[in-house]
Amino acid sequence: MGLVVQKYGGSSVADAEGIKRVAKRIVDAKKNGHQVVVVVSAMGDTTDELIDLAEQVSPMPAGREFDMLLTAGERISMALLAMAIKNLGHEAQSFTGSQAGVITDSVHNKARIIDVTPGRIRTALDEGNIAIVAGFQGVSADSKDITTLGRGGSDTTAVALAAALDAEVCEIYTDVDGVFTADPRVVKKARKIDWISSEDMLELAASGSKVLLHRCVEYARRYDIPIHVRSSFSGLRGTWVSNENPQGDEQVEHAIISGVAHDVSEAKITVVGVPDKPGEAAAIFRAIADAEINIDMIVQNVSAASTGLTDISFTLPKSEGHKAIDALEKAKGQIGFDSLRYDDQIGKISLVGAGMKTNPGVTASFFQALSDAGVNIELISTSEIRISVVTRQDDVNEAVRAVHTAFGLDSDSDEAVVYGGTGR
User: Could you give the angle at the alpha carbon of 5 between the alpha carbons of 122 and 24, nearest 5°?
Assistant: First the structure.
């Protein structure tokens, strides 16, 4: 039996009973002969509550102190979980991200892992202990300050440790039984997927599927770490995410569509009256890049012949919206646009599947399903294995259900179970 990295989300350790249940599962893995490293998130909605508290104290908290505050949640979880494991008669040691050797860049609140040096974790394992690591956090290589990895960063911590420790598998435990064809909170007839390629999972994660973070899947694909997504509330087999199908050639033809994802955390900015000449788009997106803001979809309208002006629209995280507006306003003199429009009442629906490369009817069926549901489309973006559209936020749930049904993804069996979590 080899080394296993297990990650438990906030809903799995939401209270004392949850922590004791998780401790028993960890001890069972140890009894089965595995070396076990556990990455744990903050309990329940602790992180959100800390964010709310910080905003009450300061509307714009300093990044360094904000990270110091947020990392407290995971430290509470790791210590309590180590206590619960010891109470079951097994030795466990807890480590913060910095103690575990998670080295990051210096960007507070959304740092990226640049190296993992798990010397203390190796020592703990060699001594027969279970290692408990606080997820979502690391230490800056330059400043030596505590950093956080952004929303969902515990998944990335787990995969990074799995790669550094050459683990057999990274098990991501959550409050659903695996990866589904849609969010089971929205589509009650969503089907669990037994295996999904890293490529398809990357697109689903980037399109808003919350079960795995995009950076986590990207890291796993790069280092060829198989991920097993499963529930900590049941003993059922979950979903395997890997570069190759573990069943080999038994499944020669992949499903045309892997799933439908949605995202209501984005906003849309339209730059109105941009001179239609070389360099204008570059200036707009340079201003956005200099503000360290990631953008998603981009659409440029056809230039009006009479004015020589065009409009450019793009989507970005709502949390970055006002910062983007400020950056563009400062660059207005250089760019020369007329005005800015901001809209945070949008939603994105994405259809993902490698099979759509060779099935020309997919696009038509997708738009027909949206039309039949009375959903108006504002922006469209495509890749080889994904079609995404932006609609009104109020239309998102209905659109997801309509598309899911149109592509025959609805399950005939029991409805998907969400065991815990608030979805906040």
Answer: 105
Judge whether residue 250 has pLDDT over 60.
Answer: no
Q: Express each pLDDT in 284-309 by its tens digit.
A: 999 999 998 999 999 888 777 678 89
pLDDT confidence of 270, banded at 50, 70, 90?
A: very high
Angle between helical axes of 214-223 and 153-164 (0-180°, round to 10) = 10
**What phi, psi does 103 have (nearest 5°)?**
-100, 130
Q: Which of 164, 106, 86, 99 is nearest to 135 (CA)?
A: 99
For residue 158, which of 121, 209, 124 has the smallest C-alpha distance? 121
Q: Which tokens in the block code for residue 398?
A: 């209905």
Least confident of 36-50, 250-264, 312-326, 341-355: 250-264
Please state at what angle helix 198-206 crosses helix 214-223, rounded to 10 degrees. 160
Residues 92, 95, 101, 103: is their CA dihedral positive or negative?
A: positive
Residue 279's region, left for phi above 0, alpha for psi from -120 to 50, else beta, is left
For residue 22, the surrounding DSSP H or E stretch is helix 16-31
